[in-house]
Amino acid sequence: MARLAPAPIPAATPAATSGSTPDLTRKHLSRLQEHQSERDCERLSRKLRKRPLVLFFGRTTFSDNSKYLYLRALASARGYDVLWCTTSPALAADLTARGLPCLAIDASCDVTIDTFLHAAVAVFTINPFESVGLSLSLLGCLAGAQQVQLWHGVSVKRLNLQLLPYLGARGADIRQYWMANCAADHVLSTSSRLDGYWREVFGCRSLLRAGMPRNEVIMRAAADNEWLGAELPARSIQALQGQAPAVLIVPTWQRGKSTPLTETEFLAHALQFARRNGAEVFFKAHPAYFDGWSQGEGEIEGLHLIDPGVDIYPWLHRFDALVTDYSSIMFDYLLTGRPVLTLELHEGGHQRYEPDFSLVPPGEFRVPFQVEDFSQTLIDVLSSDRARDARLGYASQLFETDPSRASDTLLQVIDRLVEQSQAADFVVWNAAA
Fold first, then answer.
1. Contact 379, 273 (CB under 8 A)
2. What is the DSSP letter of 319?
3. Distance CA 108, CA 142 (A)
4. Which of 60, 195, 291, 309 is most buried by its number of CB atoms within 10 A?
5. Domain 37-212+405-422: which CATH class?
6. Burial of 424 from C-beta contacts in 10 A (0-12 / 13-18 / 19+)
């Protein structure tokens, strides 16, 4: 298997100099017009009375924290309307077919603008700029809504505002990504030990203490609608229901770089382990990789290639071990009590600012390995695992509230935010008094 092709990230760029080409001049004019449109929409959004409406945004697939919170909000009448918003026509069609309320962002510009301008609350899992299809105007339309950022995992990466010392602030594109995240009014923080980190990342002073909604299906069986977006090939399902050990390999997104976890040599070791030990190995790339990937391509005995966009969380408790470089899924997986193996990355061999395990509490929750000793390390932890209690103890430091009640806890906050949006927000001055 060839090395995965990573998606690029915006890079800091120097300011334009005099003598720009006509094309570059037109680009700058277009950017100015776009920013003016954003400012106009922002002013309108902040002036308009809000409807009792909560919008949920996710990736182009149906997955992650916002998915589970959205479905929970629909489970019982809450006194407000709920919409999933997506730039994917295919996902919009799937949700509509199931009777799940959905807004296809690109279907009607006027409908989308009106909906965004009047929403009381907007809930995000990734950067809002990506969530609205990289439209500054639509970002402006949401400025008057209370924005709730759930993000997508406990991180050993520096994110957003923490990257200023490394990437600078001159490039307009990267500033736009950061500023979109800075619009969050409330940010999820699962632990008092992580509060300072999330405040620095988003520049937000209102933190919500709750678990991550996606972790609920690690603790309980998934409901019918929660399987939407989590479909696997029949061959993979059969393997997960069998008696053979199942190992999940999940490399993270490394900002345009890759680690040996995505290279042929490592996958050869993984396949060798599977065949020698009668195991099943599942490889799932990060959603930022392999756009258009078709899972199950080129079936190889003992190896399962999972579409990066698939929601793996309803399946997570079926795996006997998780292998990663430093994906945030390793912290969620600790809730199963099962082993986590992490690729040892030498200093200078990767990003100079990540991974940084000092961003999370100290503790022995993982087993480091090198590519050449992967098979033996995995055999050792599967055959003799003495660290289960330590991992569960560490998980309790990262997730201080009941993981199975994450959605209900967050919805209590959203209920209050919607209620506040419907209260009278004007004053009357009686000049004759």
1. yes
2. -
3. 17
4. 309
5. alpha beta
6. exposed
For the chain, the 3-state helix, strand and coil shares in percent, each to the nearest 5, are 45, 15, 40
Exposure class string for 53-82: b at 16+ Cβ within 10 A, else e: bbbbbbbbbbbbbbbbbbbbbbeeebebbb
Beta strands in 61-214 (DSSP E): 81-86, 102-104, 119-124, 146-149, 186-189, 207-209
Provide the pLDDT confidence category of residue 11 given band limits of 50, 70 and 90: very low
Report which residue type is found at 392: L
The gap between the terminal CA atoms of the chain, to the nearest Å, is 81
Q: Give the CA diameter of the chain.
A: 90
What is the CA angle 405-409-414, rounded to 5?
140
Q: How far apart are CA 372 and CA 380, in angstroms?
A: 14
For the entire predicted model, the pTM comes to 0.89
Per-residue pLDDT of 363-403, as tens digits, reads: 989 999 988 888 899 999 999 898 999 999 999 999 999 99
Could you say which of 3.40.50.12580, 3.40.50.720, 3.70.10.10, 3.10.310.10 is the CATH number of the domain covering 231-398? 3.40.50.12580
Q: Name beta bridge partners: 55.
A: 83, 122
Residue type at position 292 = G
